[in-house]
């Protein structure tokens, strides 16, 4: 359980620091037989810093309770 707690703490810290990322996706605009036109579109994935805080807190709780049981 200690390993899971430490992993959640690290993931929670990363989620607090980086609140999202952006990537580029190629989308077809026109596909008419041999003619194909596509464009690059930027998409973004964002999450709330609260999600990172909750994961971090869960990791701390798991780590503390696993020490008490040993």
Defining key terms:
alpha+beta, two-stranded antiparallel sheet, 53% helix, rod-shaped, 70 residues
First-last Cα distance: 11 Å
Number of helices: 2
| Uncertain spans | none
- Beta-strand percentage range: 35-45%
The arrangement of helices and strands along the chain is HEEH
Largest sheet: 2 strands, antiparallel
Strand order of the largest sheet: 1-2
Task: Describe this structure as you would to a colleague.
This protein is α+β, with helices and mostly antiparallel strands and 70 residues long. It has one domain. The protein contains two helices and two strands. It has helices at 2-17, 49-69; strands at residues 20-32, 35-46. Strands 1-2 form a two-stranded antiparallel sheet. A hairpin with a 2-residue loop joins β1 (20-32) and β2 (35-46). α1 (2-17) runs antiparallel to α2 (49-69). The longest helix is centred in the C-terminal third of the chain and has 21 residues, at 49-69. The mean pLDDT is 90.
């Amino acid at each position: 359980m200690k390993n899971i707690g430490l992993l959640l703490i690290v993931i929670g810290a990363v989620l607090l620091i980086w609140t999202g990322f952006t990537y580029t996706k190629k989308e077809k605009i026109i596909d008419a037989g041999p003619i194909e036109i596509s464009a690059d579109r930027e998409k973004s994935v964002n999450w709330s810093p609260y999600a990172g805080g909750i994961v971090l807190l869960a990791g701390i709780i798991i780590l503390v309770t696993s020490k008490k049981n040993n």
